[in-house]
Inverse folding.
């Protein structure tokens, strides 16, 4: 395929987050909260070779740390992280759900003390089962509809 | 022992330790013996929500052990009405007192308090969350009446959705190996995570909407109030309140050694005629708050 027909250009150096759930790219961006003046490409509802659709994010000149990359798993657990150097993939790994998330999410329990005007940072811990659920350290409730609880 | 926030934090050994100490303090709790192990110590008692038994039994426990109490019941005369945060209130009170007992309408308040207090925090109920000292006095009463904490058939009856005491009690009972039945009106069923925990630990009995369905195999009938303040819609409250009424006829259908417990206050879920029956143990249960809280205070303040 010629470069001029590509929807999004290749990057020489940076990070590509692939296999993001369709229409979740903007939630991934909210989780990462990157403050960068570097070029960023967002591809939404792209056709996946594996069938169905996916979103892709490309960050030119930004190498995500493993800690940052793992935050992606909060909203898109099957996403893959590709670190690009010299136009080649030098490292590829899956995002792993972090054990503890501080300050990014808000509790879905409106009566939780963490939703009041108190000088604390929210904290959620990954539940022990495989359900990819997070439990509020304060009220001990499961967070509901996690993607909607980012940075509210 | 430092903070007492959630029944989840207590091991079986710690629970038994508290109950044993409480048993040894019964005479002091009744005023038949004197002990001043907390002489010169001060308990901060801060109640942002109404309470009769919990607050008064904590204060009684502190006085019986020779200590003093400061605090408030209701926020009207405090800086909380000016918008003071819980964090600042806790910082201040923990500076005055040797331990702080906290009741607050928000879930997680006690956990937050531990982050701002240099002194032990005892959770006296946070919203629909935890109420560990109620659980301990419930266990104390069960052991006192039944002689054991395991192998019992316990039926939790009433508002299992909003009633914090039954959540904590279900978790605590599951540490010992029991069969737990859940009896509630539709819409007030036990939260899923508690049911899952009981199922996973093999201690889930049955879930139903009628006390009659479980009464003949019940050792402990634990009845709870339908809590009006937990309902945003008063019409919904009226609809379910009074649906579950425990009367002498029902109590008589249980096994001979069955007991009836209730964290109180009751509204109309246990008719007064049950009070005189030998099965009724809810006033002994309320009294047991004193020795159990004495035991806890002596452990967290006295350092025993």
């Amino acid at each position: 395929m010629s470069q001029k027909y590509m929807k999004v250009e290749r990057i020489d150096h940076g990070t590509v987050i692939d296999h993001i759930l369709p229409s979740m790219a903007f939630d991934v961006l909210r989780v990462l909260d990157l403050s960068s003046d570097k070029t960023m490409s967002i591809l939404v509802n792209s056709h996946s070779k594996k069938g169905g659709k996916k979103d892709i994010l490309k960050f030119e000149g930004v190498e995500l740390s493993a800690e940052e990359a793992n935050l992606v798993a909060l909203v898109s657990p099957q996403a893959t992280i590709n670190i690009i150097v010299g136009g080649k993939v030098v490292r590829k790994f899956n995002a792993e759900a972090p054990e503890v998330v501080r300050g990014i999410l808000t509790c879905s329990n409106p009566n939780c003390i963490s939703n009041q005007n108190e000088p604390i940072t929210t904290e959620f811990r990954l539940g022990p089962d495989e359900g990819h659920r997070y439990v509020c350290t304060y009220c001990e409730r499961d967070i509901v509809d996690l993607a909607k609880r980012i940075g509210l | 022992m430092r903070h007492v926030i959630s029944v989840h934090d207590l091991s079986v050994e710690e629970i038994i330790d508290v109950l044993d100490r409480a048993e040894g303090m019964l005479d002091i709790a009744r005023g038949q013996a004197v002990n001043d192990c907390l002489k010169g110590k001060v308990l901060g008692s801060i109640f942002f929500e109404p309470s009769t038994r919990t607050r008064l039994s904590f204060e009684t426990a502190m006085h019986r052990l020779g200590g003093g109490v400061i605090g408030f019941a209701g926020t009207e005369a405090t800086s909380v009405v000016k918008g003071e945060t819980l964090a600042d209130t806790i910082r201040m009170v923990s500076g005055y007192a040797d331990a702080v007992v906290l009741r607050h309408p928000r879930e997680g308040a006690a956990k937050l308090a531990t982050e701002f207090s240099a002194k032990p925090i005892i959770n006296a109920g946070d919203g629909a969350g935890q109420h560990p000292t109620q659980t301990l006095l419930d266990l104390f009463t069960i052991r006192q009446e039944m002689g054991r904490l395991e192998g019992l058939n316990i039926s939790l009856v009433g508002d299992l959705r909003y009633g914090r005491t039954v959540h904590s009690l279900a978790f605590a009972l599951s540490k010992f190996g029991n069969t737990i039945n859940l009896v509630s009106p539709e819409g007030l069923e036990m939260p899923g995570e508690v049911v899952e925990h009981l199922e996973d630990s093999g201690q889930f009995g049955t879930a139903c909407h009628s006390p009659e369905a479980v009464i003949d195999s019940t050792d402990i009938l634990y009845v709870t109030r339908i809590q009006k303040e937990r309902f945003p819609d008063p019409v919904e409250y009226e609809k379910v309140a009074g649906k579950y009424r425990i009367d002498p006829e029902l109590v008589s259908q249980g096994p001979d050694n069955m007991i009836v417990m209730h964290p109180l206050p009751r509204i109309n879920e246990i008719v007064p005629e049950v009070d005189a029956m030998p099965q009724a143990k809810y006033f002994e249960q309320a009294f047991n708050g004193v020795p159990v809280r004495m035991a806890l205070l002596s452990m967290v303040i006295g350092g025993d």
Chain B touches chain A at residues 6, 8, 83, 85-87, 104-109, 111-112, 115, 126-130, 193 (CB under 8 Å). The first strand of chain B starts at residue 42 and ends at 47. The CA atoms of residues 86 and 113 of chain B lie 7 Å apart. The mean pLDDT of chain B is 92.
